[in-house]
Amino acid sequence: xxxxxxxxxxxxxxxxxxxxxxxxxxxxxxxxxxxxxxxxxxxxxxxxxxxxxxxxxxxxxxxxxxxxxxxxxxxxxxxxxxxxxxxxxxxxxxxxxxxxxxxxxxxxxxxxxxxxxxxxxxxxxxxxxxxxxxxxxxxxxxxxxxxxxxxxxxxxxxxxxxxxxxxxxxxxxxxxxxxxxxxxxxxxxxxxxxxxxxxxxxxxxxxxxxxxxxxxxxxxxxxxxxxxxxxxxxxxxxxxxxxxxxxxxxxxxxxxxxxxxxxxxxxxxxxxxxxxxxxxxxxxxxxxxxxxxxxxxxxxxxxxxxxxxxxxxxxxxxxxxxxxxxxxxxxxxxxxxxxxxxxxxxxxxxxxxxxxxxxxxxxxxxxxxxxxxxxxxxxxxxxxxxxxxxxxxxxxxxxxxxxxxxxxxxxxxxxxxxxxxxxxxxxxxxxxxxxxxxxxxxxxxxxxxxxxxxxxxxxxxxxxxxxxxxxxxxxxxxxxxxxxxxxxxxxxxxxxxxxxxxxxxxxxxxxxxxxxxxxxxxxxxxxxxxxxxxxxxxxxxxxxxxxxxxxxxxxxxxxxxxxxxxxxxxxxxxxxxxxxxxxxxx
Length: 586
Known about the structure:
The structure is a single chain. The longest helix has 19 residues, at 98-116. By secondary structure, this protein is α/β, with parallel strands linked by helices. The model has no long low-confidence stretch (mean pLDDT 93). Strand 10 and strand 11 form a beta hairpin. 36% of the residues lie in helices and 22% in strands.
């Protein structure tokens, strides 16, 4: 009888030596390919002080190899990653032994730390016997055989703590993990994968999955998506929330209505658990910029680029890797990757585009106002940017790039040109199509925009695009969470000045103080606004998002332009804007 994960998860307690010089950060299961490699397994992160990192990891690897051999895992692999101030060590493991793998790598760390700190470890013989017992208890040989046979049939298999599914969407079937059938009892003819694309990057992920889904819908497909906002199949939103990790992907891919899928893949999910599938038809990296650094040993933007581009590990053998040729970090990281790359760029003379065309490789670019796709043999004129509502007549270049990435994905997934044009031309910056992404409203003759941008890269892109629009007075509402440094918050405000505001509403976010005092963030916003040339009287304080929205709506007149960067209470902001819109129409 296979044990449940509840029986296994806390079955052992591995003692971790305590020291300020060797600090155990975290252990976790890796259920799919990711930053380190293609294997499932387990990883431990360690902070290291007053020891040479290579000495620690060399010792750790030797001990881990010895331990794995003794518990019967001589064929399993070990990998180490160094970063500033620490290191990670991961081991591979069978999919039916991932909790056991966590116990194993924690045990190897106890042995290593004890040796380096000259402390006595627990009984080695007892720990080895405990690990063998847990491995035997967790073992699910029927699942392992099923995974092999699914691979032989060229069909994806997805396993988690509770369920196992073979195939995707319309071609999927799900069983409880504790009661999987024998491979010989499965009707393999009825099982198959559907086209799946993974979409990641620092900014533009959610817009890209929504736009790509709209193109697929235009082709008559029942399209599904996962995102940081919700998970949806066709017109049915299954749930609201952050579903940019493997859990959201599993829920979507097991829905029997699904015919094509677009999965938003966030940095955190890749590092915590790995990628959700192993047979994606395509993957897209929109861009890479500094955001959420300092977690899981990712301390630099270059290291972050490695995380983002690790999505290529989930591609099928004939999968297409769509990359932004206007991003230097992506170009640099791509040199280390063996994949079928489809470059896209706003510059038709980009070296990556020129090389791809010369070598008969997939690529896309903008020439004049037209987006062009090259299929390796011929150039295809896809659409004029003035026919793409997201592009705002070319002012929103970041959305022109999103359109290029989406059309490359669409071609890679077999979508016809007519549907691609229709999807690009009908998808709008509206709360219905793309909520929170530069949504435009007309109130009392003024143009009002709402965006959820929250990092310097996205804020600068949005404000620069809107800064090019003609208008009278310009109102900007801005605030931020308290877990950013003073310098980070000021940088955010500087980026927002691409909007060229005449008035700024510095709004408080009481639910996002994160250790700050009330008034700290608005004071920093005010200070930076004044340094950017505004007078003190041009910067208004708002108690919260609703108060800020009201101040903007009460201040605007005909011909004005307003941009509200909304971090919290988004539904309330839309409600107030909707009420003002209806009042103006009455």
